[in-house]
Amino acid sequence: MWAQDNGGFYPGLNATAEVLPAEAIEGADVPGSHPAARYVLLMNGNYFNGRFAISPVESGKTEWTTTSIPITPKNFSFAMLAIDLDDDGLSDRFPDAESFGAVEPEASDDSGEPEQPRLNHRAAEWSETLNTDAPMLGDRNIGSDADADIGSIHGGSDRGAWRGSVVYNDNHVIFETTPSHTTRFADGPVVNDDNLFAADTPGAASDAAWVFHDASSLVDQK
Hints:
The protein has three helices and seven strands; from the N terminus they run αβααββββββ. By secondary structure, the protein is mainly beta. The strands form two sheets. A five-stranded antiparallel β-sheet has the order 4-3-2-1-7, with no helix packed on it. It has a two-stranded antiparallel sheet with strand order 5-6. Strand 5 (180-184) and strand 6 form a beta hairpin.
């Protein structure tokens, strides 16, 4: 519903796929690349109530209710897809080519004008693509790494195991018992054994990477 009025892009990006600055988001003091900002945009728009951002199995969270108090990770339970791992508030278009292992397009059409720079694969996927292979959000990792000390709110103190719900771009949801899956984002490569909480293809922004308390931290999502 949000995307239909926003150029096809989900909350946090504007209709031209630029990350919203913090000053454009009432009730958040962070840019749209942060999950907190994306939550507050939806709740401010009455897309859902603050209690729906909190997992029913998790205690200690409080419902966010007012723009007079900025939203924090204490108000939500779930991680979202990283769309700006540089955490610089930019749109992650490919002029930021060096950071994302991309190549800036050459002049391309009959007019000799440069092609419109493409988005990195994750940012391009933060839109209504209905991609069955793109995990977008779900239960976070409360461990300090993505391997031996990975952890889940569904597993208590059972470190080394993660289980949780995974929401895909086509809206299907699966309760998984492993964080590693075969994924493909936008026109990027297929990534096998793609860990939701690790940058498996550094710099390419083409694999799953979920963030929780800021725009770039992939582990220790307490």
